[in-house]
Amino acid sequence: MRRSMATVCLSGDLRGKLEAIAAAGFEGFELFENDLLSFEGSTQEIRQMAQDLGLTIVTLQPFRDFEGLPEPQRSRAFDRAERKMDVMAELGTDLFFVCANTSPQSTGSLERIAEDLYELGERARQRGFRVGYEALAWSKHIYDYRDAWEVVRRANHPAVGLILDTFHIFSRNLELSAIAKIPKEKIFLVQIADAPLLEMGVLPWSRHFRSFPGQGQLPLDRFMQVLRETRYDGWLSLEVFNDQFRTTPPKETALDGYRSLVYLQENPLEKLPVQTGGVAFVEFAVSEEMAPTLAQFLGALGFQKRGQHRSKEVSLWQQGQINFILNSEPGSFAQAYNQVHGTSVCAVAVLVEGVEEVLQRAQTYKAPIFYGPTGPGEHQIPALRGLDGSLLYLIEAQQEMDSFWAVDFELAAPQPTPTALQRIDHLAQVMPAAQVLSWVLFYRTILGLQTSNLLEIPDPGGLIQSQAAESPDRSLRLVLNASQAGGTLAARFLNEYYGGGVQHIALATSDIFGTLERLQNNGLQLLPIPQNYYHDLEARYALEPALLERMQALNVLYDQSPEGEFFHAYTQTFDDLFFIEIVERRGAYQGYGAVNAPIRIAAQTRLYKESLRTLSTPLRFRPD
Ligand SMILES: O=C(O)c1ccc(O)c(O)c1
Ligand SMILES: [Mg+2]
Predict the structure, then answer these.
(1) Distances (CA, A) of 524 to 301, 580, 593, 620, 621
(2) Where does a divalent metal cation bind (predicted)?
(3) So what's the pLDDT on residue 270?
(4) Which pLDDT value is given to residue 618?
């Protein structure tokens, strides 16, 4: 099947769209009527542009409100069609795209509609064209592809065929099995769109929220399976109306579209999730001046310096299975990152089974791969470059970590202090709202992560959208946060950080109270939680008074699910850039305490405003 994209998917002007479509690797495009009408040049120029870019004009679309009309509208519709075919001839495209009538004046008589399509087909045939007929989910009568197929079947004309569009099929929850019985030469075009499951009218859902395959929740694999049964081998064309895509550069969106089609066409068996073993390490980009303060912060959190890099200004900090790297090496990627973002996470390393295969997947998906400079004998760790410019290192999962570190680091013997924090529970990433779908595709296609439903979290300055991306065994958990409002904590992070990145790291313990007591004695400052929160908890859950008291004393937040309980607390923000969460999961609780996010965000906002009022340094970590 050849890959195509409708120009409506992209932002910008027609030339920019076509260049982006060609650069991403598509062979054809659907020319959307608006892009033709708003183009300054002639149809001949469009034809030339397509030819120069090596693109086929799959169709000019859509032709609306054509079939089943009474006279005199019927004759006028045929006149309009003739003029449209003149334009098609100039463009050099041969598929006349009719979407089913939405006009209240149209009849639902299949016989009448079939007659109109027959006549149009005959006129098209005389010019060497074909007519494709698409059911729209909101058409007056023909909103089910099976009815559209019935009409095409009755028209019984070689130049009249069917157009299938996955959005219209799934948004109406239609049975797919009838597709398998349609002769492949009667399917003239297949349009592909995914979408999140939303409860709203099909028209606004389609016009604003469609997405590329892998970014939504429609069972497109099932569609592809029945489509394969027909042996259809024509165009597979992305047709996505999405508000976010209208704000992102067309080249990036087109590339995402290309990736999503490759993903869709991949054999489902090859889509088997990558086996991950969680986060191997998190690397901080820190300036030489800030490195001692960050080291103190980590010390207060119970981390020990385990190693010093043999050739670089890089140190290794450990606790339990958690590894943090502090990188202040001059001239390094980390330093460049630090200069833009301040003290920040510049890289995350994940353990995967089969690094080579993941790199191959990355290549298939045209994801940039990065190899940093290394000294003699040091590890060469391949990395993927994330959309925010940070790195995602890939490390083979079956790895003895101490010998792994010993290659690059001078290791000290671990000191026998009680371990407070055991492993990385999850990382929370903030990103511009327009980038969320891109990240979802990145994690789904390359790492095989699964994404959860979108949650909306109230922030004092607006709404934050939050979504989890997890490996099937949950060894790797990420939380993706975005804000469209300018005044939210997430938006402020984007501003101060100059872009997206890891905003917090959640570390797991099996004894949150003992741990927090110990860390507070180390000088760690926790995010203060208001008393009202605990009054409300008391009313909601029948918690032991002693437990509530302890939670309040240590600023611990709480959530409960049928599977278990979640206790969590936050450090104050480091340099106003990121913070650490300390979590204890009891039972099989799988969430992230999202109900408490508004409390946390309000507390952080309060502290931030206080620091502005008192003009105190924004540095929130001050060990005594
Ligand atoms: O939203 C629309 O009008 C529209 C137009 C053409 C299509 O192919 C389609 O699926 C929807
Ligand atoms: Mg369509």
Answers:
(1) 7, 11, 22, 11, 8
(2) 134, 165, 191, 239
(3) 67
(4) 47
Residues of the chain with pLDDT below 50 are 618-620, 622-624
Q: Terminal CA-to-CA distance of the chain, rounded, Å?
A: 66
**Ligand 1 proximity of 65 Cβ (cutoff 6 Å):** no
Q: Tell me the CA distances in angstroms from 613 to 276, 399, 554, 616, one per residue in order.
A: 45, 50, 26, 8
3-state secondary structure 238-299: ECCCECHHHHCCHHHHHHHHHHHHHHHHCCHHHHCCCCEEEEEEEEEECCCCCHHHHHHHHH
Q: What gap in Å lies between CA 120 and CA 101, rounded to an integer?
A: 15
Q: Residue 200: is it exposed, middle or buried by C-beta count within 10 angstroms (0-12/13-18/19+)?
A: exposed
Residue 396 labelled as part of a binding site: no
What's the CA gap between 499 and 389, in Å, rounded? 9
Predicted confidence (pLDDT) per residue in 168-187, tens digit: 999 999 999 999 999 999 99
Ligand 1 touching residue 165 (CB < 6 A): yes
Between CA 162 and CA 165 the distance in angstroms is 10
C-alpha 446/C-alpha 457 separation (Å) is: 28
Mutate to test the pocket of ligand 1, among 171, 241, 242 (most ligand atoms within 8 A of CB): 241
With a 6 Å cutoff on the Cβ, whether 134 touches ligand 1 is yes
Q: What is the 3-state secondary structure (H, E, C) of 370-437?
A: ECCCCCCCCCCCCEEECCCCCEEEEEECCCCHHHHHHHHEEECCCCCCCCCCCEEEEEEEEEEHHHHH
Give the span between the Cα atoms of 391 and 371, in whole angstroms.
Answer: 10
In this prediction, residue 452 carries a pLDDT of: 82
Q: Counting ligands in written order, which one lies closest to the CA of residue 61?
A: 1
> Is 191 annotated as contributing to ligand binding?
yes
- Residue indicated by tokens 């946060």: 481
Q: Is the CB of 35 under 6 A from ligand 1?
A: no
pLDDT value of position 610: 84
Closest residue CA from atom 2 of ligand 1: 207
64 touches ligand 1 (CB under 6 Å): no
Distance from the CA of 131 to the center of ligand 2, in angstroms?
14
Query: The tokens of 379 are what?
Result: 């590890």
Question: Which tokens is 210 given?
Answer: 């469609």
> How many Cβ atoms from other residues are within 10 Å of residue 495's Cβ?
10
ipTM of the complex: 0.99
| Domains of the chain in sequence order | 2-268 (3.20.20.150), 276-411 (3.10.180.10), 423-610 (3.10.180.10)
Q: Distance between CA atoms of 601 and 581, rounded to whole angstroms?
A: 13
CB of 239 closer than 6 angstroms to any ligand 1 atom: yes
Write the DSSP string, 442-455. Answer: HHHHHH--EE---E
From 34, 136, 145, 210, mutation site for ligand 1 pocket: most ligand atoms within 8 A of C-beta? 136
pLDDT one-digit tens code per residue, 11-70: 999 999 999 999 999 999 999 999 999 999 999 999 999 999 999 999 999 999 999 999
Mutating to test ligand 1, I would choose from 59, 134, 163, 210 the residue with most ligand atoms within 8 A of its C-beta, which is: 134
| Whole-prediction pTM | 0.90
Please name the helix (run of DSSP H) or strand (run of DSSP E) that holds residue 113, with its range, or none: helix 110-126
The burial of 375, by beta-carbon neighbours within 10 Å (0-12 exposed, 13-18 middle, 19 or more buried), is given as exposed
